[in-house]
Structures are given as structure tokens and as C-alpha cells.
Amino acid sequence: MGLTVNTIKTEVVCQWSANIPSTPPTFTAAGEQLSVVPSFRYLGSILSEDNTIDNEVQNRIKQASAAFGRLRRRVFQNKNLHLRTKVCVYQAICVTTLLYSCEAWVTYSRHIRALEQFHIRCLQRILGITWRDRVPHSEVLSKTNCRSIEATITQHQLRWLGHVVRMPSNRLPRRVLYGQLHHGRRSAGGQKKRYKDQLKTALKTCKIRPEALEDVAAD
Predict the structure, then answer these.
(1) Within a domain: 3
(2) Res. 1: pLDDT tops 60
(3) Residues 200 and 219 occupy one common structural domain
(4) Highest taxon of the source (predicted)?
(5) What is the per-residue pLDDT across 149-170, written as a single tens digit (0 to 9) for each?
(6) Residues 53-73: what's their mean pLDDT?
(7) pLDDT, tens digit, for every residue of 90-108?
(8) Structural domain of residue 127, as residue ranges?
(9) CB under 8 Å to 30, separation ≥6 — which residues?
(10) Number of domains in the chain
(11) 129 plus 202 within the same structural domain
């Protein structure tokens, strides 16, 4: 039996390395033209034609906010529960929802800022404080024994990086990580941040030399 494509449900996203053309290309399957869309959801994540995670971050915040709202009265505002229990539930459900698939993210300051704002706002509500109390964000994190979102993303990405480095050399994720293009070059001017740039920043933050990565991952 061959694969049958449902042309009504099938959509196409073109991810461009340069500027998005004004006239999108056309794709056909079984004689039917497929819809070309700017973004769609795949395995729970939103893929966009501009190769950014802007839509994905907003979607993650929306999903995590909904999860927090469902538990707000029963858990986070429940005076009979210990603070540690509330934070554990928040970390297990809300933060996990917020940072789903963050191992593959390429983040800019605007993404971190939006995620941190949501994170701090949730922790403030768990602690029962508002911005009028003028409690520094560092103190909010300290009282709840939580990491910042930026630190958590770095941890997740380095954990995934170590997992990929330990893979056999014939595995596709490892081949992609170590692969290089034979042709082409980056255009002049400001460059888009690459996933490898993201990982290099994470390694530098943790003071891990790239040449020592495989030895560290093997430990």
C-alpha cells in the first residue's frame, strides 16, 4: 500500500535563508495544489517561514499561562499547601509546558525577556506579591529556589548537546551537528543567529571549551 496524501489537510511552509519572496512557490500533490502558509504546528511546535521562534515563544507562553490558570485556585492560591509543593507543581507543569522543545531553540534577547517576564509573574503570584511590593527578581527566584529561564534553557540545551555528542557517528543528529556546507557563504551585514552560535554561547557561559566538549560529555 502506498502513501495517500490528503491534499485538503496538507500545508507547506517554505523556510527561506534570505528575504521572503513576494510570490510564494507552488506545490502540487496528486494533481492538487497545496496551500502555502507562513507557519504551521508540527509535533506541538510552530514552524515559521522566517526561521524564528517568535510565534513559538508566544504560543508556549499562552499554553503555560493556561496551565497556570487551571491550577491557580486549587494549587497556587491554596493556603494549605507548602510553598515547596506549589513550586514543584509549577516547575513540573508550567515550566515544562513553557520550555517544550527549547533544546532546539535559537533565542534572542526579546525571547528571553518575554519568557522571564512570564516566569517572574507566575512566581510572584505563587508568593502572593505584586510589583507594588518592589521585590527584586533575584529575590523572587531565591525565595522560590528557582533558576532563571535563561539558565534553564542553557541547561536543557547543554544536556541535549551532550546526548548528541555521545551518539554514534552515523546517527543523523550528530552528523547534522558536526556537518558543514560545501558550497555557499553567508551574506554581508548582520547575520541570523545559528543553532551552533546558540550552543557556543551556552558553552562559553558555562566556561566549557568547545575542543573539550567531547571529554566533558563523556564524563
Answers:
(1) no
(2) no
(3) yes
(4) Eukaryota
(5) 999 999 999 999 999 989 998 9
(6) 94
(7) 999 999 999 999 999 999 9
(8) 54-146
(9) 5, 7
(10) 3
(11) no
Tell me the backbone φ, ψ of residue 70, rounded to 5 degrees: -65, -25
Q: DSSP 3-state assignment of 39?
A: strand
Task: Examine the domain organization and report whether 139 and 115 are in the same domain.
Answer: yes
Do both 131 and 62 map to the same domain?
A: yes
Phi, psi of 203 (to 5 degrees): -65, -40
Close Cβ partners of 123 (under 8 Å, ≥ 6 residues apart): 87, 90, 140, 141, 144, 146
Looking at the fold, whether 59 and 130 belong to one and the same domain comes out as yes
HSE (side-chain half, CA atoms, 13 Å) at 24: 14
- Higher-confidence residue: 124 or 23? 124
- pLDDT tens figures, 165-186: 899 989 998 898 888 777 767 6
Q: Which residue has the higher pLDDT, 92 or 48?
A: 92
d(CA 43, CA 39): 13
Q: Which pTM value belongs to this model?
A: 0.85
pLDDT at residue number 195: 86
Is residue 188 domain-resident?
no
Q: Is residue 78 part of a domain?
A: yes
Q: Please count the residues of the chain.
A: 219
CA distances, 38 to each of 13, 62, 207 (Å): 6, 20, 38
Q: How far apart are CA 135 and CA 132, in angstroms?
A: 8
Strands 11-12, 35-36: pairing kind: parallel
Q: β-strands 32-33, 28-29: how paired?
A: antiparallel
Would you say residue 214 lies in a domain?
yes
User: How far is the C-alpha of 218 from the C-alpha of 144, rounded, in Å?
Assistant: 33
> Which cell goes with 206?
558555562
| Average pLDDT for 81-97 | 96
